Amino acid sequence: MYQESRFNPRARSGAGARGLLQVMPATAREMGFHSVDTTERGIAAGVKYLDHVRQQFPENLPVLDRMWFTLAAYKAGSGHVRAAIKLAKEQG
Questions:
Q1: pLDDT category, 49, cuts 50, 70, 90?
Q2: Shortest CA distance to 14 belongs to which of 27, 24, 28?
Q3: Residues assigned a catalytic role
Q4: Mean pLDDT over all residues of the chain?
């Protein structure tokens, strides 16, 4: 929350992300939330999305790797993280 909004529940990014966890309105809807206008809904939507992102990485990854990949994907998108993993493997 600090990284995303500096703990400001009314934070809004230039791209339209909102709330403490800076969830995009479309992402909130995909997670089953009509809006993130309250602190509680914003946190719930962000945590649900974080879990959704985490599930996109193999369960057999070491816990720390999966955690870092999840956090990176929350910020940059899982496609970018998967591309970075692929590139790292290709480059040894």
A1: very high
A2: 24
A3: 4
A4: 95
